[in-house]
Design a protein that fits this description.
seven-stranded mixed β-sheet; binds the ligand Nc1nc2c(c(=O)[nH]1)N[C@H]1C(S)=C(S)[C@@H](COP(=O)(O)O)O[C@H]1N2; globular
């Protein structure tokens, strides 16, 4: 059985150095998979922003968009053209006031995973919260009911089971970043590990 394919010439420039195309969509989770229903799901904004809690319905009432995005896991597999549906970060940000002193964001999740991202990387047009994967409700193992997707960084920044954002005045490290992963994680620059 073959689990990886060599990228064809047509997509070669979309596959970052050291990456292979995965067959299917692998699951990569540290620890147990949280089981969270949309009824109990809550999302909290904290830190240097207007502190606020959102329900599932609040997210459904925001503008809904379709996305096609490439996905790059630092363990060397990539999956191109993943299809999602959800809420653009730029649309979500219209719901809150962020303090101009905020320069970093900590992503918080059910199950206590965290990952950090600069505000600049976070507010990009192509980033989104996803609740639908290939026209099906996002399965729990892929982060359902809701996850973040940040296509331009390695996928450990795309927090599954996301339940909050904490706005910060300086960089703090998340779970993998404390354990040796690069603090930014740009795949075309191969920002895999930190040199600390
Ligand atoms: N909460 C949480 N989010 C997470 C992870 C995790 O372990 N917990 N793993 C990250 C990593 S390393 C990758 S590659 C992607 C994998 O997403 P997938 O399982 O949907 O392929 O989720 C990221 N988000
Ligand atoms: Mo990963």
């Amino acid at each position: 059985m073959k689990f990886f394919e060599k990228p064809g010439a047509d997509v070669a420039d979309r596959v970052p150095p050291g990456q292979h195309l995965a067959k299917g969509f692998p699951v990569l989770t540290y620890g147990d998979t949280p089981q969270v229903s949309t009824d109990e799901w809550q999302f909290t904004v904290s830190g240097l922003a207007q502190n606020k809690t959102f329900s599932w319905q609040d997210f459904m009432d925001m503008p809904q968009s379709e996305f096609t995005a490439d996905f790059h896991c630092v363990t060397t597999w990539s999956k191109l053209d993943v299809q999602w549906r959800g809420v653009k970060i730029t649309d979500f940000l219209k719901e809150i006031d962020v303090d101009p002193q905020a320069v970093y964001v900590m992503e918080h999740c059910y199950g206590d995973y965290t990952t950090n991202i600069s505000l600049e990387d976070f507010v990009r047009e192509e980033n989104f919260f996803a609740h639908t994967l290939f026209d099906e409700p996002l399965p729990a193992e892929h982060g359902g009911p809701m996850r973040l997707i940040v296509p331009h960084l390695y996928a450990w920044k795309s927090a599954k089971w996301i339940n909050g954002l904490e706005f910060l005045k300086e960089m703090e490290l998340g779970f993998w970043e404390r354990n040796g992963y690069h603090q930014r994680g740009e795949p075309f620059a191969e920002e895999r590990y930190s040199m600390r």
